């Protein structure tokens, strides 16, 4: 059974809005370039750019606790490594994340915009080639749109798939088919992936990714209706190559 990639996203700054892509080159053992390359410390953390080991997500500004982040639209220029933040379509800050002065511009805006949520001075942190994830493992997150539609059916309203922070959205497969991929290889365009873990969902999915409103309790609905609160799968990149919107996704056989 074959589906297709319908959207590709990365999240250059952890907790901020996605950067949509038409195609992307990935390397074996890696993730999408610049995915979670930076995060915003909420007061001092133990993150060391010289030795970038995992630290708890609570060290950073994140949607699970800081839903106002969702009211910001972020745009990322990969060549310049420039982040631009917009509020209601109007630019409110812009800076080159690879430079101290550029990060400082963003930090000053965040300090004012998120003042009531801060435990100390916000600081943008990152390390070249490192993806800031709580587990410290490079993976690609896949969400099946048929599973999103099944969730919409039981909730009785539309659900933006961006609530689940996917890297790849796929369609043309049965709902929950992605859980059958665990431990198996997947052919996605020219890239081989291996599904390795179901994604356990938290309260971040309750936040509308456009308005910042906490308007659902998705983990509770899933526990009640499906007996679990897993949504999407993490996959390891086994081979280098390009992924593009429209590429086929071949699911493994029995």
Question: What does it look like?
Answer:
The chain has 254 residues and is α+β, with helices and mostly antiparallel strands. The chain has 2 domains: 2-30 and 136-250, PK beta-barrel domain-like (M1 Pyruvate Kinase, Domain 3, Beta Barrel), CATH 2.40.33.20; 38-126, no CATH class. It is built from 3 helices and 15 strands. The radius of gyration is 18 Å and the shape is globular. The relative contact order is 0.21.
What class would the helix/strand composition place it in? alpha+beta
Form type = globular
End-to-end CA span: 11 Å
Strand percentage lies at 25-35%
Report the helical percentage: 10-25%
Order of strands, main sheet, comes to 1-10-9-13-12-11-15
**CATH level 1 name of the largest domain:** Mainly Beta
Cα radius of gyration in angstroms: 18 Å
Number of helical segments? 3
SSE order: EEEEEEEHEEHEEEHEEE
CATH architecture label name of the largest domain: Beta Barrel
What's the overall average pLDDT, rounded? Answer: 95
Low-confidence runs (pLDDT<50, min 5 residues)?
none
Total individual domains: 2
Strand and helix layout:
Layout: E1 2-10, E2 19-21, E3 23-26, E4 38-42, E5 72-77, E6 82-87, E7 90-96, H1 100-113, E8 122-126, E9 140-144, H2 145-155, E10 168-171, E11 185-188, E12 191-200, H3 218-226, E13 230-237, E14 241-244, E15 248-250
Parallel strand pairs: 9-10
Antiparallel strand pairs: 1-2, 1-10, 1-15, 3-14, 4-8, 5-6, 6-7, 9-13, 11-12, 11-15, 12-13
């Amino acid at each position: 059974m074959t589906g297709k990639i319908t959207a590709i996203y990365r999240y250059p700054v952890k907790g901020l809005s996605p950067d949509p892509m038409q195609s992307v080159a990935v390397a074996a053992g890696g993730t999408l370039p610049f995915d979670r390359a930076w995060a915003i410390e909420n007061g001092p953390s133990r993150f060391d750019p010289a030795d970038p080991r995992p630290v708890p997500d609570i060290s950073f500004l994140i949607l699970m606790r800081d839903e106002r982040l969702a009211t910001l639209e972020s745009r990322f220029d990969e060549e310049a490594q420039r982040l631009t933040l917009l509020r209601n379509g109007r630019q409110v800050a812009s800076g080159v994340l690879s430079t101290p002065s550029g990060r400082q511009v963003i930090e000053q805006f965040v300090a004012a915009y998120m003042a009531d949520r801060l435990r100390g001075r916000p600081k943008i942190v990152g390390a070249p080639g490192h993806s800031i994830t709580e587990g410290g493992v490079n993976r690609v997150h896949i969400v099946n749109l048929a599973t999103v539609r099944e969730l919409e059916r039981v909730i009785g309203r539309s659900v933006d798939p961006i609530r689940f922070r996917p890297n790849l959205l796929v369609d043309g497969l049965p709902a929950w088919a992605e859980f059958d991929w665990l431990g198996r290889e997947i052919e996605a365009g020219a890239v081989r992936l291996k599904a390795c873990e179901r994604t356990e969902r938290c309260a971040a999915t309750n936040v509308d990714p456009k308005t910042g409103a906490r308007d659902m309790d998705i983990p509770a609905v899933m526990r009640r209706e499906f007996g679990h609160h897993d949504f999407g799968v993490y996959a390891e990149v086994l081979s280098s190559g390009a992924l593009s919107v429209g590429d086929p996704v071949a699911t493994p056989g029995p």
